[in-house]
Amino acid sequence: MLDTDTRLSRARVQLCLKQPYLASALMRFPLVEASSVVEAIATDGYHFFWNREYVESVTDQQLRGALAHVLMHILTQSVGRCQGRRMDLWAQATDYAINPLLAAFGFQLPHDYQSDPRFLNLTSEEVYDVLLAEAQTKEKESHGSNPPSHGSD
After folding, report:
1. What local confidence, expressed as pLDDT, does residue 62 receive?
2. What is the pLDDT of residues 31-81, one digit of tens each?
3. CB-neighbour burial class of residue 122 (10 A; exposed 0-12, middle 13-18, buried 19+)
């Protein structure tokens, strides 16, 4: 069995060979173990940060899919396009927009990656608008069911 560092490097090279259009972008970013900081694989736009336990928990195919997923966040400039939106919803929206593209290209994503057929062929911005409307509706409903107390009469 290969050690984790070797598996990660091998997954990156295999991804370059199988998807050469991603190769130059993928090889620009150093792989940095950051198990105490990230839960899976993440980026700051300059590095790929990875969690050892996570890498050990996924198959080689899922690992290539996870690397491609993070790379797509960089290539689509997800962080720069957030522009004052709620970060939690924006992160979900970009995942919902990116993951179907990767699946269509034949990537196998880890099982915990966001997927919802409602968002097929929508941009991150369009998905965000739907998620924001749903969140606002939920917030209104939760406030409506618990009216504020005005004290006793």
Report:
1. 95
2. 999 999 999 999 888 899 999 999 999 999 999 999 999 999 999 998 889
3. middle
The pTM (predicted TM-score) of the whole model is 0.82
Please write the tens of the pLDDT for every residue from 33-44: 999 999 999 988
**Secondary structure (DSSP) of the chain:** ---HHHHHHHHHHHHHHH-HHHHHHHHHSPEEE-TTT-SSEEE-SS-EEE-HHHHHHS-HHHHHHHHHHHHHHHHTTTTTT-TTS-HHHHHHHHHHHHHHHHHHTTPPPPTTS---GGGTT--HHHHHHHHHHHHHHHHHHHHHHSPPP----
Burial label for 20, CB within 10 Å (0-12, 13-18, 19+), is: exposed
